[in-house]
User: Fold this.
Amino acid sequence: MAKLPKELEQSFSALNEKLDEIEKLVLPLFRENRAKINQRLSKFDQAKLNIVLAYSLNSLFYMYLRTQGISPMNHPVKDELERIKVYINKIKTINGEARENEKPSTSIDVAAANRFIKHALTTGANAQNSSDTTNNQPVKNLGKRKPNFESKNQAPFKKKRGKK
Assistant:
């Protein structure tokens, strides 16, 4: 085997140490039956465990592709990691761990709110003034004629009788 440069040798040894740490953390999960583990966990914790396992496995596969000289950018594993990240963010939101730098889902348009308030205040004042003057005045007949139903054919709700 060819001698590697010192920088690469350090990087590989650090990677090997991190992989050993991951193996130590994940190994207990594989020793015990998955159903037994799920019985001890709440539904929320089961979801978190499933997401962590999926992300870990896909991340390891991503690193494996990189070590083999394959670009993971064009590989389906990248899309899978993005899909899992969406679920991680959902779990963080449910758990109240949403990032502070994320934009809130709703925002207030201050200018629009000021327009609504100004319109409501001016319209409310005008409506109050106009209601004060109209309440004191009797309603006048504006000259509309009442319909004349002298003829039986013109009655609005008369039912037609058929032959018996």
Summary: The helical segments are 6-31, 34-40, 43-67, 76-95, 110-135. DSSP finds five helices and no strands in the chain. The radius of gyration is 38 Å. The chain has a mean pLDDT of 76.
